[in-house]
Amino acid sequence: MRKTGGQLAMLVVINGVLLVAGALISGGSFLSIFNLQSMASQVPEIGLLAIGVMLAMCAGNGGIDLSGIALANLSGVLSAVIVSSFLSATDSGTAFSLVFIAGAILTGFTGGLINGLLISRLNITPILCTLGTQMAFMGLAVVVSGGKAVTVGSPELLSSLGNDMLFEVPFSFLVFMVVAAVVAAVLKFTPYGLWLMLIGTNPKAAVYAGFPRNWVLIATYALSGTLSGLAGVIIAARNVNVKFDYGSSYLLIAILIAVMAGVKPEGGYGRVICVVLSAIALQLMSSLLNFGGLSNFVRDFAWGLLLLTFLAVGRYDIAGFLLPGRHLQTPSVPVPQAPK
Amino acid sequence: MSASRTEDLHGAAAPARAPFSLGELVRRRPESITFALLVAICVIVAIANPAFLQPSTLIDIGRASVVMGLFALGVFVILAAGGIDVSFTAIAAFAMYSMTVLVQSYLPGLPIVVIILMATLGGALLGIINGLLVHHLKVPSLIVTIGTQYLFRGFLLSFIGTVWIMSLPPQMGAFGRMPLVQFESANGALITLPFYFLVLPVAAFVTWWILNRTLMGRAIFAVGGNADIASRLGYSLRTVHVFLFGYAGALAGLAGIIHVCANRQANPFDLVGTEISVIAAVVLGGARITGGTGTVLGTLLGVLLIVVLNSVLVLVGIPSTWQRLVVGSFILLAAAFFVTRQRKK
What we know:
The complex is a heterodimer. By secondary structure, chain A is mainly α.
């Protein structure tokens, strides 16, 4: 746990540097309230997915959730198709929104539960399982929508979730913060959180210690799925349409955020606050690249490079090297393991 | 093809032991399930729509399996060593597009053999980058290769070009059209099995030879079984990782250039996005995703299964929108099936 502070401090510094750099490059307009709001409203969807990836990674044993964005899209598409078959978005906006939100979150939860059951009960490797469900979820969304975009429209409640501000802060960003705080509290103060981290650290010891391994795995993937469902709601709220292939690069970005946040890919360690900060840092960087007028492809290139850089940082403890005073810690002994 | 012949012999020998047990056969040769599934699907489709058995359909399937088969062989080798690779499509796109641009603008007279060799070599170099990163970063290869996938593709699209090249250099087009077998079908249309089809059996044989007849093959399966023990036995993990990813990269580069020649156009946005079906094919072929198992024959059967699935859904009247759902369910079913079989042993 000693490493925690370093990672947190580094992310705070990165965020600060990015804000200052943005202000300098753009001559202050980067820090305008409008730009800050627009950036903040783009964080939640990807941030929620990243928290899901973090949870799955913490579970260890090659744990990863690749189905996040597919499940988010499926939640939006399925819920939109079902709900709009008996409710009209224009006539009964609030009712439509409530049922839509409930439907999407339920879909996400069910999808996550399926992942969890397949992984814990059938012992399918998480990579393979979530690759399969990713394809199946996306396929189901294609089947349900016929491959076309499904219009959600902008019913009252939903559009205010996507577009309104509360005290000048986007509503969706507040929802994201609350959800992140809840997940963080669950990880910190409940036995579940402890079990999750310990199972990730040493699955064998955890089983012998009598932890309910299967339940923890199921709960983890179900929680990750629920977060995907919520991301689906926010995607639908911010865009008028939902489509099966929205956000095709979110898979990489979610993993990138988790790795930047210092989540260990081999399991056992991750903090929600770091994930939130790293999601914000990534959004700042993305907006900076936009200000620089660079194409999406350059951004893809930069994300790939960034991911590898942060993997190297995690491996060689460059953070400790750059921040003197942290040298004293004995670096954790790298556990040799097969690449998964 | 001697690879499959030898493996067939083994397959035939297994059930000869008394008492005969289907479960034993499946455990020893998981690809027999793949084969049975493939035959079942073909029979069902042939009954539902006899058009399936036309030579033109079969040749189409053969043609479509070349690029995917080459990818799958690379993925299989990596999977056998317990890793996973999702960057191979980006490597293929990178190799094919930059090679086409190079030939078109700078070296128009380059013979096709050199083009293919250079693409293969370029793919191998990118693969070696993967291997070094996987080895030195000590993180799951999935995460590393997701990173390099974006890196390679982003580099290609931002610095090399995004223009769809419709008219290939003549020697590449000619290679794509070169016939291996050519005959006239009943309705008078000319059906061609292209020459490049031969690349797949050759690559399959080489892969089989490396895995079963060389020390490197031993090392790959040993690392896939248990990397720690393999390294204590004296296998150099670094060499194995570099070789694995280099070999997979070379196959991807080769697949990329064949893809261009076969389609007679170079689209830099092509290929990326097909990784999952390739991995699905390898897993359906009986290779365990945790490494240490699998056969070349199984991999080829898995590829055939996916290609057939992709091309027959429409023939039997299932809308093409169902394709992803069907393939995804197949992955999960196969994974669940193989895992339960393993546990019973």
